[in-house]
Write a structure and sequence with these properties.
Binding site for [4Fe-4S] cluster 2: 47, 50, 55, 70
Catalytic activity: CO + 2 oxidized [2Fe-2S]-[ferredoxin] + H2O = 2 reduced [2Fe-2S]-[ferredoxin] + CO2 + 2 H(+)
CATH topology of the largest domain: Rossmann fold
Number of domains: 4
Helix content: 40-55%
Strand content: 5-15%
Bound molecules: FE(4)-NI(1)-S(5) CLUSTER with Oxygen, iron/sulfur cluster
Shape: globular
Number of strands: 16
CATH class of the largest domain: Alpha Beta
Cofactor: [4Fe-4S] cluster
Keywords: 4Fe-4S, Iron, Iron-sulfur, Metal-binding, Nickel, Oxidoreductase
Radius of gyration: 24 Å
CATH architecture of the largest domain: 3-Layer(aba) Sandwich
Protein name: Carbon monoxide dehydrogenase
Distance between the termini: 52 Å
């Protein structure tokens, strides 16, 4: 099958042809079967919030039905649908975080969940106002901090603890605009309530509440997910890895980890080193056990262990189509329900592990926090024993893979920045060198480029084109999620990528010995970007909205990305979306998103599907910010 949306991806076409030969169905077959997608859904003007509907209203104010049966007009319907996407995204990130906190609550000296970063544990405990953080026994403190973190989901009073990191000006804006998020569960529940039939109909109020709910993701759930994962599993450090389907090794037992939550993945990483299981693999004729990552689990694992990245969202099917994956094991989020059926076209066993994401047609091995290693060992044993079932005639692994450097947590990035200063005379261990580079104009600014793949967009093209345009113009890029994996595959996470940069960024990369595009982790790790930007704003004594920094999601598809865009805008950064969310049916709501919100937060959503044009807009935005700062 030839598909113009794949031209940028040099190995996809061959694998899709292979799938057809193997009688396996892919997302492209399903996309074709769907024919034209629904225009009402696309515009966000179909309401099925109550059972008097569904009510599809006209996108035009001049003809057709103007209101649903209850009287909701297109502005209300679009706003409510948008709000519910923010709820979905916030729930996903935050419930992930809750699982991490639960694991920390179960941590112990001799159990499978341990505290690896005692310093960070003590720092965050102090930041959150716990007592005796210097002296308390490690696990007693970890349990106390975990309990406090669980309260962030349901505390009856107060706002999210991490908001205090932000510049004072930003905190005042959040208070003034009533978008400072309270308990995470409360924000989601209250917005679901607001958008129930017969509740809020004022689009402006619904958008404000959507921002507040999304804020409970960015500065709540996601930030907790990142920081607590670091405490338990380690702060990511600079390290080498490889990326693309070529990391699947036909001579080894291949286990593809897919999903998001590092709890399961970490246990699999541990269990895959069990000498008995490695021996068992050898007895089956394999050279060893090869764990590879897909999507955000891949990001978590490459950031902390250098585990190789098999691919991003859109490649989850491709990996199985190689015919060399013994087990695809998943936890939550971004997992195609199509995978069990696809796996049956090959020898692959598809294993789900989370009761929250029980997938029809799976083999189910529940991940139990109280005995996590047994699930991991069973997964690996299943993979090892499945090696002999491979059909050699169906094995075809593309050779393509790219070297990559990963691991830019905030801490590691600050460490790298220390290389550009004179450690004898200058302050080290801060973001000051980054601020200096931006203020001096060596770097014009920075862009956080994040998000998914979407078959509405040529695979990886928008990510890579935007990144290349920006680095050419001396804008340093920080990336997470599937955007980071796109960058990795395209070679943008290598030191050599400096050759694609403008003079200033090239020089900065040489002095700091970093690539121009920095992998900051999974999608919850966008909180690392928020944190870094916050540190720079605080160091310079300005608000986040004043910095020459933008957010972008060129190929996003998920509700999580909608929540992300909303908390990034609320944090003061203009956010460039390459795919239209379902809001085009309401001009008024679009105007609120692109203009109105600017008056509240100092930033707005920008819709631009062409990455070249988006880059031009971003450069103009960055230069405008610089002028206003007088730099
Ligand atoms: O949280 S970028 S496709 S994998 S949603 Fe999913 Fe999108 Fe990838 Fe991670 Ni994020
Ligand atoms: Fe129709 Fe109103 Fe019910 Fe929505 S809430 S389905 S617009 S009647």
């Amino acid at each position: 099958m030839s598909n113009e949306l794949l031209e940028f991806d040099v190995i996809a076409e061959a694998l899709i042809e292979k799938a057809q030969k193997d009688g396996a169905e892919t997302m492209w077959d399903r996309k074709a079967a769907l024919k034209t997608q629904c225009g009402f859904g696309e515009g966000g003007i179909c309401c099925r919030i109550c059972v008097m509907g569904p009510c599809r209203v006209s996108p035009s104010p001049d003809k057709g039905a103007q209101r649903g049966i209850c009287g909701a007009d297109r502005d209300t319907i679009v706003a409510r649908n948008f709000a519910r996407m923010c709820c979905g995204g916030t729930s996903a990130h935050s419930d992930h975080a809750r699982d991490i906190v639960h694991a920390m609550y179960h941590s112990s000296e001799d159990g499978p969940f341990k505290i690896r970063e005692e310093g960070k544990l003590r720092r965050i405990a102090a930041e959150w106002g716990l007592e005796d953080t210097d002296t308390k026994e490690t696990y007693a403190l970890a349990h106390e901090l975990a309990e406090k973190a669980l309260m962030e989901f349901g505390k009856p009073f107060g706002t999210q603890n991490f908001l205090k990191r932000a510049p004072k000006t930003r905190q005042e804006i959040w208070e003034r605009e009533n978008i400072a998020p309270r308990a995470i569960d409360q924000e989601v529940v209250t917005l679901m309530h607001s958008t129930h039939m017969g509740c809020a109909s004022d689009p402006e109020s619904i958008l404000r509440r959507s921002l507040r709910t999304s804020m409970s993701d960015g500065w709540g759930g996601s930030m907790i997910g990142t920081e607590f994962s670091d405490i338990m599993y380690g702060i990511p450090k600079e390290r080498a890895s490889e990326s693309n389907l070529g990391v699947i090794d036909p001579e080894q037992v291949n286990i593809m980890l897919h999903g998001h939550d590092p709890n399961l993945a970490e246990m699999i990483a541990v269990a895959s080193k069990n000498p008995e299981l490695i021996e068992l693999a050898k007895e089956q004729g394999a050279k060893g056990i090869n764990v590879v990552g897909m999507c955000c689990t891949g990001n978590e694992m490459t950031m902390r262990h250098g585990i190789k990245i098999a691919g991003n969202f859109y490649q989850q099917e491709m990996a199985i189509i190689t015919g060399a994956v013994e087990v695809a094991v998943v936890d939550v989020q971004c997992i195609f329900p199509a995978l069990p059926k696809l796996a049956k076209s090959y020898h692959t066993r598809f294993i789900s592990t989370s009761p929250k994401a029980k997938i029809a047609g799976d083999m189910y091995i529940e991940f139990n926090e109280e005995d996590p290693l047994s699930c991991a060992e069973e997964v690996i044993k299943t993979a090892v024993m499945n090696f002999k079932n491979r059909d050699a005639s169906k094995v075809d692994v593309p050779e393509l893979k790219a070297e990559t450097i990963v691991g830019y947590s905030v801490e590691t990035t600050i460490g790298a920045l220390d290389r550009v200063v004179n450690s004898q005379t200058d302050v080290t261990g801060t973001v000051k060198p980054l601020g200096d580079l931006v203020w001096a104009g060596v770097l014009r600014g920075a862009a956080g480029i994040v998000g998914c793949n979407n078959p509405k967009v040529e695979h990886d093209y928008a990510h890579i084109t935007l990144m290349k345009e920006l680095i050419k113009n001396d804008v340093i890029c920080v990336v997470t999620g599937c955007a980071a994996q796109a960058a990795a595959k395209a070679g943008l996470l290598k030191l050599e990528a400096k050759e694609l940069c403008g003079r200033g960024l090239k020089e900065a990369c040489e002095r700091a010995n970093i690539p121009p595009v920095l992998h900051m982790g999974s999608c919850v790790d966008i909180s690392r970007i928020l944190h870094l930007v916050t540190l720079v704003a605080n160091e310079r004594g300005v608000d986040i909205a004043e910095l020459p920094v933008v957010g972008a999601a060129p190929e996003y598809m998920s509700e999580k990305a909608v929540a992300i865009a909303s908390y990034v805008v609320s944090s003061g950064l203009n956010t460039y979306l390459g795919v239209m969310p379902y809001v085009s049916g309401s001009e008024n709501f679009m105007k609120l998103m692109t203009e109105g919100v600017k008056e509240w937060t100092g930033a707005a959503y920008v819709f631009e599907s062409d990455p070249i044009k988006a880059a031009e807009l971003i450069m103009a935005d960055i230069e405008d910010k610089r002028t206003k700062l007088g730099i």
